[in-house]
Design a protein that fits this description.
- The protein is an alpha/beta fold.
- It has one domain: Metal-dependent hydrolases (TIM Barrel), CATH 3.20.20.140.
- The chain is about 35% helix and about 15% strand.
- The chain has nine helices and eight strands.
- The chain has an eight-stranded parallel sheet with strand order 1-2-3-4-5-6-7-8.
- Strand 3, helix 3 and strand 4 form a beta-alpha-beta unit.
C-alpha cells in the first residue's frame, strides 16, 4: 500500500488562513478530499494522512468528518491544546475516533523555547499513554530545542515534518545537517520527505537542488524511518503534485523495490498504525 503521509484539507477563510499570503494566492481556495482523490489515483497512491492546518479542535473534528466520508484518508493528525489543564480529558475524548493517530502544533510559528515550557512538556508526556504520535513542525532554528524535547521522551513516537524546512533556496545545509543528524540518533524519531519544493526557489528549482538534503536525511535516519508526504495543496505554490512526487520517486529509484516500499508506505503504516 502506497501512502501519502502528509497533506491538508480546508475550506478557505481569509482570517483563519491568514498565513496564505499574496505570494501563495494559488492556494487561496477550498481543498477537499474530492479534489485530492483523482490525484492520488493518478499517482498510484492508496491512501493519505490528513494533517491539521488550523489550531483549533474544530479543525480536528473537520478532518475526522472528512475521513468518515472518504475511506482513502487513513489517518488524522489533529490539534489539541497540549497546555490545557483538561488535556487528559480531551485526549480521552478523541479515543472514540480511531482515525485520530496523533497531534501537531505549528511550532514553526513559536519561539523555540515554547516546546520546552513546563506546560508543553507536560502535554507531550501524556500522548504515549493514549498511543498518540506527535508531528514536529519546525524551522532549522528550532532544531536544538527539538533535540532537548526528544531526549526527554524515548518512548514517544515523533516525526519531523518537511525535513525541518531547510534553506534549500539558499543552499544552506551545514548547521541543518548537524541538527538533523543529532535528532536521528533517537530511534523513536522519524522524518517526512515532504514540503521540500516550498523551501526551494519556487519558480526555478531543479531536482538536483534537493539531492544533498535527501542524501543527508537518508544517511542519518536510514530507510526505515523516513516517509513520503506531498504537503498538498501547499506544494502547489511551487510544483504540481506530479512534479513534487517525481522528485522523490526519481531520487529513490536508486534503491531496491523493498526499500522504496518502506519510504512510500510501510514506514507510514508502522508509525501511524494504519
Amino acid at each position: 500500500m502506497k501512502i501519502d503521509a502528509h497533506q491538508h484539507f480546508w475550506q478557505y477563510n481569509a482570517v483563519k488562513h491568514a498565513w496564505i499570503d499574496d505570494s501563495m494566492r494559488v492556494i487561496r481556495n477550498d481543498f477537499f478530499p474530492e479534489q485530492l482523490a483523482p490525484i492520488l489515483i493518478a499517482n498510484q497512491i492508496d491512501g493519505c494522512v490528513a494533517v491539521q492546518a488550523d489550531q483549533t479542535e474544530q479543525e480536528t473534528d473537520f478532518l475526522i468528518e472528512q475521513a468518515n466520508k472518504n475511506p482513502f484518508i487513513k489517518a488524522v493528525v489533529g490539534w489539541v491544546d497540549l497546555k490545557a489543564p483538561n488535556l487528559v480529558e480531551r485526549l480521552a475524548y478523541y479515543q472514540q475516533y480511531p482515525i485520530v493517530k496523533g497531534f501537531r502544533h505549528i511550532l514553526q510559528g513559536e519561539d523555540p523555547s515554547f516546546m520546552l515550557s513546563p506546560e508543553f512538556i507536560s502535554g507531550i508526556s501524556q500522548l504515549a499513554n493514549f498511543g498518540y504520535t506527535y508531528d514536529i513542525l519546525i524551522y532549522p532554528k528550532h532544531l536544538s530545542a527539538a533535540l532537548e524535547l526528544v531526549k526527554q521522551f524515548p518512548n514517544q513516537p515523533f516525526v519531523i515534518d518537511h525535513l525541518a524546512k531547510p534553506f534549500i533556496k539558499d543552499g544552506n545545509i551545514a548547521d541543518w545537517k548537524i541538527g538533523m543528524h543529532a535528532l536521528a540518533q533517537y530511534s523513536n524519531v522519524f522524518c517526512k520527505i515532504s514540503g521540500m519544493v516550498t523551501e526551494a526557489d519556487w519558480l526555478h528549482w531543479k531536482e538536483a537542488d534537493f539531492t544533498p538534503y535527501l542524501d543527508a536525511v537518508v544517511a542519518s535516519f536510514g530507510l526505515e524511518r523516513i516517509m513520503f508526504g506531498s504537503d498538498w495543496p501547499v506544494c502547489l505554490v511551487a510544483a504540481s503534485y506530479e512534479k513534487m512526487a517525481a522528485i522523490v520517486t526519481n531520487y529513490f529509484s536508486q534503491f531496491s523495490a523493498a526499500e522504496q516500499e518502506l519510504v512510500f508506505g510501510k514506514n507510514a503504516i508502522k508509525f501511524y498504525h494504519l
